[in-house]
Amino acid sequence: MFWQDPQFGNKLITLMAALVLVLQILMVAQRWLVTNIRAFGIQSFLLGCIAVTIAYFNHAPQIYLVAALTLVFKAVVLPIVLERLVTKIGIRQEIEPLVNVPISVIVSGLLTLLAYVVAESFREPAETTGPSNLGHNTLAVALSLFLIGFFMMVNRRKALTQVLGFLCLENGLFLAAISLTYGMPLLVELGIFFDLLVAVMVLGILVYRIRETFDSMDVSKLSRLRG
Amino acid sequence: MAVFIQIALVLFLSPLITGFSRTLKARLQARRGAGVFQPYRDLYKLLRKGMVIPDSASWIFSATPYVLFVTTLLAGLLIPAISATAPLSLFGGVLAVVYLLALGRFFLALGGLDAGSPFGGLGSSREMTISAIAEPALMLAVFTVAIGAGSTNLSSVAQAALGQSWHFLSPQQMLAFAALFIVLIAETGRIPVDNPATHLELTMIHEAMILEYSGPYLALIEWSAAMKQLVLMTLLVNVFFPFGLSAGWDPASIVLSLALFGGKLLLLATVVVLVETTNAKLRLFRVPELLAVAFVLSAMALISTFLF
Fold it and tell me: Could you give the 3-state DSSP secondary structure of residue A23?
């Protein structure tokens, strides 16, 4: 059947990776914080699906576990936690990037190009695809998620939106790990997950504190000491 | 024969698509709406009316509706609608389609300026601002598809697309489709960019240009707008989802592919209407941001053609 053909799996994975990239660009372009958080949720959901596809074609049960963790934590729990945080601190919804939106979008396009150029040397022709090298060609997407995530962190003023950039960066790492090596050892993977969860919790509390103390989440105001 | 079928199709199907999306939009907003055939009645009514032509208008004002109508119809003959070979495919490929539409738009902008009313100039400048960004996105997306098929002739593109399985699953196709979808919304003046249902609103774009037109001229312009929408939608559905295109022009397969083509168009129109009803209109200065997204998406599509 065609769904057992590795070629088909490869197509499916590249397609989902492309969707992930589209979502990333939309997150750079989108001004509303809640929409951004939901886009992150959908992106994580797609990453989970990529992991499921790779697990299915390689008959690797531990990747199913990783995929399930991604689907539960990154696609559902984290977005809910972040949205709660947004309503709790009642900030203005609009993100104010340092560089204006069209230029940021073009910069992310250039970063994608850079990622493609870097990943070019690792590329394998699609014809030789077997189950073991499924999704190798998504390395470029993973790298560009990483770079654009960095760019989002640098480009945004508010602490919460920087957290979001960090999460995108982590999504890029996850994609690279899952597509190149079929996931790191399970223990490492679990460790990263709980790290991430705790990091978001801590950052959430930190954001809340910044908001309480400075009446703003603009991190550029953190340069002065206050008693 | 093929030419006549496609002329009839482009001419008489286009108001139906417009009417369908208006009715569906009204239903989604819990209104009854005017019925699917209202655009035909509007065109008939306008064609019988007299005209008012501004004193300051030159020949450009009167030439514009004809130029617009003819260029749009010609563009409609260059793209494969129900058969994989378009009737006039020997005369030009996708570049001809894009620039025929651009010629019509150029004259429309001139016509808007020519009438001498401040609204016309405002509409023209806005239309040109938007199309200056939408056009590169359109071209890059189309080139992506053309590289995949090895030809810029739309008939060969459609035939190449027909021969591939899992065709839609490739990422460059999807990126190009996303970019073209945004371009479609911008070019047909749909809601995140422009509101087709308003007159005399400060944010209008298309309506501002044609404010001075009346009677048969207005009918021609409205009809061209509907045809342009049909042309762009056909480009989207047939280049990316080519199944159902018949190989030749024999009657039996034509009827079947006509039904499939209608179904695909209605589906795309439904998606556009859903986008329209769930989004608010963007402020004019935010429109370039949306188009920048389309541009970057199509640029990425072009890049990934060489890399995936």
Answer: helix
CA A209: distance to chain centroid?
Answer: 25
Asked if A116 and B307 come within 8 Å (Cβ–Cβ), the reply is yes
Q: CB–CB of B184/B291 below 8 Å? A: no
- Among chain A residues, the shortest Cα distance to B133 is held by A102
Q: Chain A residues with CB inside 8 Å of B290's CB?
A: 29
Task: Find which of A16, A22, A129 to mutate to test the B interface (most B CBs within 10 Å of its CB).
Answer: A22
- Calculate how close chain A gets to B140, using CA atoms only, in Å: 14
CA dist A116 and A128 (Å) reads 20
A10 touches chain B (CB under 8 A): no
* 85-104 of A, contacting B, C-beta below 8 A: 101-102
Q: Which amino acid is at A195?
A: D
Residues whose CB falls within 8 Å of the CB of residue A48, separated by 6 or more in sequence, listed in order: A67, A68, A70, A71, A74, A75
- B171 to chain A, any CB pair closer than 8 A? The answer is yes
Kindly state the tokens that stand for B275.
Answer: 């986008």
List pLDDT tens digits, range A69-115: 888 888 898 889 888 888 877 766 677 788 888 888 889 989 988 88
In this structure, are residues B108 and B221 in contact, taking their beta carbons and an 8 Å threshold? Answer: yes
Alpha carbons A207 and B3: distance in angstroms, whole number: 65
Does pTM surpass 0.80? yes
Residue B24 has what pLDDT?
A: 93
Contact A80, A72 (CB under 8 A): no
**Distance to chain B for A197, nearest Cα, Å:** 31
pLDDT confidence of residue A227 = 56
Give me A40's structure tokens.
């992150």
Contacts of A84 (CB under 8 A, 6+ apart): none
B292 part of contact set with chain A, CB < 8 Å: yes
Task: Rounding to the nearest 10 degrees, give the CA dihedral for residues B24, B30, B34, B39.
Answer: -30
Using a CB–CB cutoff of 8 Å, tell me whether B227 touches chain A. no
Determine contact, residues B25/B236, Cβ cutoff 8 Å: no
Rg of chain A taking only CA atoms, in angstroms:
18
pLDDT in tens, B88-128: 878 888 889 999 999 999 999 999 999 888 888 888 999 99
